[in-house]
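Minimal example, chain plus pantoate.
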Amino acid sequence: MGTMQRFSDIGELRQQLHHWRMAGERIVFVPTMGNLHRGHLRLVEQARDHGQRVVVSIFVNPMQFNDKDDFAAYPNTLVQDCAKLTEAGVDALFLPSVEVIYPDGYQQSSQVVVPGLSDILCGEHRPGHFIGVTTVVAKLFNIVLPDVALFGEKDFQQLMIIRRMMVDELYFPVEIVGVATARESDGLAMSSRNGYLNAEERQQAPLLYRVLEQAKSQLLLGSESSLVIETQAIQALQEGGFIPEYFSVRSRKDLSKAEGNAQGLVIVAAAWLGRARLIDNICLNSG
Ligand code: PAF
């Protein structure tokens, strides 16, 4: 295992990346906001399969937090994160400051706006969130110039926006790889936000995935309409102590509302449990 180099300066990082590229090595990139859990580490492990050099960034992006308190409370676990990334064999860690990414402040930043897909579901409930995500991902892609970048499927809408719009439409020359959601043994999707759950809420939290699984089997049976399934799911979540934002059967092509034919569908959900906003999804082609 080599040592992990750390960079907070764009020029120094680019110089190192240039050396690797000149040596014919492929650069694989995993952007994160830190507070790393096993889900992130799975991205890092899979990154190895796509190239010789793995670059991870940790940057808590102020522009994608529609709620200032949420940004301020975002956990910083840099010492543990570095230890995990070193052990995982990461080659370079990019740790830019807010000033490096947003020299004139993020309110003044040029923006990458992906209309339509960014305005629905999480975008509707977190106005401006996806503009923050696509803007920072565009900046990070232009800094790192990766051959491949990996994102978790838990953030299904984010992955779609990045893949379909930034790559297919804006022609960022990068291959995007989605990685299956890592789950706790009781089904709860791993997320930095799970740390906001108290002990009782942690017991209730796996209900979100159970309700998604239930909705999936109902859809596969084909006996109920999407609307009935969604209404029942929202009720089940409310009874389990959640405050749902949305629970919706969508097309995997464009996240439009979908009915009937189970092929190509995804069920997406977001719900509050105490202080934590949990999101999860389930696709209908697999099993
Ligand atoms: O998924 C995340 O952690 C963030 O949205 C990302 C992609 C690192 C952009 O800040």
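Residues 5-179 form a domain with the Rossmann fold fold (CATH 3.40.50.620). The CA atoms of residues 211 and 236 lie 7 Å apart.
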